[in-house]
């Protein structure tokens, strides 16, 4: 019966790992609560392009 104990332990480790990945995914994609007067809720990634520098060739 040593083999079945090892299989059970391995299944438990895999189940805990899957649960951890699911919880991390939920935490990453769940919107944060908005506080009145506070900043807008943040997302995972906000992309902003830098402003274009002025053209100095005509000066």
TrEMBL record:
Top-level taxonomy:
Bacteria, Bacillati, Actinomycetota, Actinomycetes, Micromonosporales
Q: Compositional bias of type Pro residues: which residue ranges? A: 50-59
| Superkingdom to which the source organism belongs | Bacteria
Q: Write out the ranges of the annotated region (Disordered).
A: 39-59
Tell me the organism. Micromonospora qiuiae
Q: What is this protein called?
A: SPW_0924 family protein
């Amino acid at each position: 019966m040593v083999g079945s104990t090892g299989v059970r332990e391995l299944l438990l480790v895999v189940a805990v790992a899957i649960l951890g990945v699911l919880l991390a995914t939920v935490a990453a994609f769940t919107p944060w609560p908005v506080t009145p007067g506070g900043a807008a809720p943040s997302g995972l990634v906000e992309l902003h392009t830098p402003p274009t520098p002025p053209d100095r060739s005509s000066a």
